[in-house]
């Protein structure tokens, strides 16, 4: 690894954000409002259960109420939507998170879109995606927002840069592309059908890996001096980039773990607190 490569420490970014959030939580509680995040887990996927538990623990450490709704794997789309609508109508709940993925027989998009926009703190609704694309979403998708937050924390320029995003999911690749575009980057979106992927990645001043394949992005693809943001998390605690090889050429890179992940969770908490603040203004 080059001695000049900047390691983008997600824990430092997350801790800085949480210090500010703790103050806001206390201010809200003094006014009689406890921020509340409701998490919905459908089925018994162990990885999903772990993610929900981590988010719940993070809430508790900040004094945010964590309300867990656990539904059987046999839950229907209609039953899930009914549970979401109950939370929409509960004024004590400020944010709703439906843990992805849900069992295959459920219409996940219909379930996501049942979440009220003012409680869509994870940025998963079609309306929230549209608002993000236009640049005025209150709560953009958390991992894309975390990527931008890391770049801002380390004062890494976005405007005028060529950003290459590998991945096009509706809650990561596409929204982060829109956020980079709205910050005046030139954005190329790559995916599984992209030809000559390595050649395209090599053009990127900013490379965002969101493909869901361990060590997929190769070191020789990285333009010398590029900023590499790895949003992947795979078995064995490895990301989507070949970290050691990419770090040799990058000017800055996120590790996995302790890179984008901690900031994603902190962003979810931030959105929940902001949603609680908005209830005082309505």
Strand content: 5-15%
Label the overall shape: globular
CATH superfamily of the largest domain: NAD(P)-binding Rossmann-like Domain
Count of individual beta strands: 9
CATH class of the largest domain: Alpha Beta
Largest sheet: 6 strands, parallel
Relative helix content: 40-55%
CATH architecture of the largest domain: 3-Layer(aba) Sandwich
Number of helices: 10
The end-to-end distance, rounded to whole angstroms, is 52 Å
Give me the CATH fold name of the largest domain.
Rossmann fold
Q: How many domains?
A: 2
Mean pLDDT: 96
User: Cα-atom Rg, whole angstroms?
Assistant: 19 Å
Strand order of the largest sheet: 1-9-8-7-5-6
How would you classify the helix and strand content by structural class? alpha/beta
Family: Belongs to the tetrahydrofolate dehydrogenase/cyclohydrolase family.
GO molecular function: methenyltetrahydrofolate cyclohydrolase activity; methylenetetrahydrofolate dehydrogenase (NADP+) activity
Pfam families: THF_DHG_CYH, THF_DHG_CYH_C
Domain Tetrahydrofolate dehydrogenase/cyclohydrolase NAD(P)-binding: 141-278
Summarize the structure.
By secondary structure, the chain is an alpha/beta fold. It contains ten helices and nine strands.
